[in-house]
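Record type: monomer structure entry
Structure origin: computed from sequence
Chain ID: A
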Amino acid sequence: MALIIPVIYSEILREKFLGKVKLAGMATNLGILKNTTEGDTVSFPKYQTLTDAQVVVKGTASTIDELAQVDNKAVITMVDKIVRVYDIDDMTALGNSIDEASKQQAIVLARKLDTDLMTVALTSPLKSATAGANAITATEINAGILKFGDEQDTEEMAGILINSLVSASFYNMTEFVGAGRTDTLAGNGIVTNGVIGFFRGIPVIVSDKGTYDSAKAECITLIVKVDALAYMEKKVIDVTEEREEKLHASDIVGTYVYAVALVNDAGVVVVRKTIV
C-alpha cells in the first residue's frame, strides 16, 4: 500500500523547504533548468559594468559601450534525502511519521542549498576584517557596508547573515537594541523565522550552515545585496515512493537538482577575522 501521494507530498515538502532556507532566501531564483543533467554546467547572467558617462563634443562621435556578459558557469548538482517509513510505525507510532519525514527532508535539502550558496558567496572580492573571531561590532558592520561605496540604500540590501555565536554581539549592541535611536527597530532581538532583527533597516538572519570556519575557529558574516546571489532549479523537489513490500515499508525519495552562482561581485561583502 502506498503511504503518500507524491504530488501532494512534494508540495508539502516545498512549503517546509522554503521555510528552512536562510541564505537562499537572500538569493534570486532565476527559473527552471532545462535539458540538463547532473554535472552539466549552466551560465548565469553576469554583466560587465558600463564606463562613466562622457561629455559630448560637437562634431565628434561618442564612444559606444556594449552591454557584455562575463562567462559565469556553474555546475549543476543533484542531491537527495531518502527516508524509510514502516507501515506499522505510520499506523501506530505517536506523532505523524509522514509529516516528520517531510519536515526533516526539507531541513537537510535547504541546508545543502544554503551551504553551496555560501561557498560561492565566499569567492566575493569584497572583504572586511573583524578584531574578534566570534564577535562583531557595529563599527565593523558599518565598515563592511562601506565596501559598497555610495550604494548603501537599505532597499538594495537582501540581508546580513551571521553565525549563532555572533548573535550575542547584536544583543549587546546599542546600534541594534538601543531605545530612542532612529536606526533601531522595536522588537530587535526577538527571533522570527531566523531573523533576529534589523541593523540600519537590513534584516539580520542567523544560520550555522557555512558561517563557521572550524579550521580557523572563527565566524563568517555576509552582507548581501539583492540579486547578488542566484540559483536555478531543475525540478522544485522531485518526490517518489518506492515500496518495499517484504519489509512493509516505503522509501520516500526526495531529489533536488540545482545550480548556484555569485552573479554580482560587488554585491556580497565577507566579514571575518582572517582576510585571505
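Annotation 1: The longest strand covers residues 229-244.
Annotation 2: The domain at 1-276 is CATH 3.90.1690.10 (phage-related protein like fold).
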